[in-house]
From TrEMBL:
Residues 139-375 form the RMT2 domain. The keyword Hydrolase does not apply. GO terms for cellular component: cytoplasm; nucleus. The lineage of its organism: Eukaryota, Fungi, Dikarya, Basidiomycota, Agaricomycotina. Gene3D superfamilies: Ankyrin repeat-containing domain, Vaccinia Virus protein VP39. Keywords: ANK repeat, Methyltransferase, S-adenosyl-L-methionine, Transferase. The keyword Transferase applies. This is Protein arginine N-methyltransferase 2. Pfam families: Ank (PF00023). One of its GO terms (molecular function) is protein arginine N5-methyltransferase activity.
Length: 375
């Protein structure tokens, strides 16, 4: 008896695997929708993933079939299943610039995230499965704010003469807090956040979180009209000393808040401003959940629909595009729409990291610019 039931369970699993594999193949072969629907109706599992981690949803994203993406989501496909390269179907849609497929998957994510939040509140759970995926476990100065703030920083130059700011994370390893070659990213960020801003002529009210090399703050100061208010939040004592030595404390319109953004984000100093035209954040040693928490404050910090929000998109912290999906999703959740644009960070230089740890490995940086959604 036991033998035969075990055998039939094996049979069931084998059948499901065969059906799942047939479904993925059929989608990748662009089989007509009606036939794919018949496979699903016959019991092919939409949650199946093959040896490479490809699910029917990944396959539908690859062939850019938005009608099928919608059907699979409605049938219960797992929106955030990752393949062996750590990409979700949403990452694939995004990398193919297929906005329709991406939006359907993202919206499924928002729905399930809202449900998870509700469930976790009900169950008083400390964290949702998503925060488990995204939480960093690094306790070195690169991954722990407390360790970072009590470690000395060094301002120096790399072999190409570019400014760098380094922190030692182990006897034989240094991590760049900020590298001079990231200037191109900061330039493009400021261009997108400020240059066509309707309040530029009267001097923008700017909030920047994290000074680093001061590249973006220098660029804000070089706008055609200087900011009418330029608030910088910075906690690291060595960075603050560097700012003092460079005269940042004396610059008109500049206000330096010594501490972490967490210390000020709900304070009078920020909230009495009446809203910033531009908010930018680029911190160090914080994981994605911290950025996610910052996102939740952004609507209160911005002046209105014409205001802009930017952040350093730390691609290296998880796996490339995978993280973009969460960023987009969580910003949509707080009413901010993001536009992504590409910045080429490679510029023919193969050794831009020197001896420091690489924090993103892609040639193209996906630069986010957020705005409050108009209702
Ligand atoms: C990558 S650098 C910023 C680089 C800057 N965007 C530039 O253009 O040079 C990160 C900075 O964030 C600061 N930082 C780290 N944790 C922070 C926090 N919780 N709040 C504010 N700043 C923080 C670090 O001390 C460091 O100066």
């Amino acid at each position: 008896m036991a033998d035969s039931s075990d055998h039939s369970e094996d049979m069931d699993v084998d059948t499901l695997v065969a059906q799942g594999s047939e479904l993925v193949d059929a989608i990748l072969r662009r089989t007509p929708l009606a036939e794919i629907q018949s496979l699903i109706e016959a019991g092919a599992p939409v949650w199946y993933q093959d040896d490479e981690g490809t699910s029917p949803l990944h396959a539908a994203a690859y062939v850019e079939d938005d009608a099928l993406v919608r059907i699979l989501i409605d049938e219960g496909a797992v929106w955030n299943a990752v393949d062996n390269l750590h990409n979700t179907a949403g990452d694939i849609a995004l990398s193919l610039n297929n906005e329709k497929c991406y939006t359907i998957i993202r919206d499924a994510g928002i729905r399930s995230e809202m449900l998870l939040t509700l469930l976790s509140k009900r169950a008083s759970a400390a964290s949702s499965p998503m925060s488990l995926i995204l939480r960093a476990t690094d306790t070195t100065p690169a991954g722990s704010t407390d360790a970072f703030l009590s470690t000395r920083l060094e301002y120096t130059t790399d072999e190409h003469g570019q400014d760098i700011c380094l922190v030692k994370v182990a006897d034989d390893e240094e991590v760049g807090v900020m590298m001079g070659w990231e200037r191109g990213i900061m330039q493009e960020t400021v261009r997108r956040l400020c240059l066509d801003h309707e309040n530029l002529g009267e001097g923008l009210k700017v909030l920047n979180v994290g000074f680093g090399l001061g590249i973006i703050d220098g660029l804000f100061q070089s706008l055609p009209t200087k900011p009418s208010l330029h608030v910088i939040i910075e906690p690291h004592p060595d960075v603050l000393a560097h700012m003092r030595a460079q005269g940042w404390y004396e610059k008109p319109g500049v206000k330096i808040l010594e501490g972490k953004w967490q210390d000020f984000v709900e304070s009078e100093e920020l909230l009495c401003v009446g809203g910033f035209d531009v908010v930018y954040t680029d911190t160090f040693s914080e994981d994605y959940s911290a950025l996610h928490r910052f996102f939740e404050h952004v609507p209160d910090l911005l002046a209105g629909p014409e205001s802009r929000f930017g952040f350093f998109n730390g691609l290296g912290a998880t796996s490339g595009l995978h993280r973009l999906l969460f960023e987009d999703l969580h910003l949509a959740d707080v009413g901010i729409d993001v536009e992504w644009s590409d910045v080429d960070v490679f510029e023919g230089d193969t050794d831009r990291w020197g001896k420091t740890r690489e924090y993103f490995a892609m040639r193209t940086y996906r630069l986010p610019t957020g705005r409050m959604r108009a209702f």
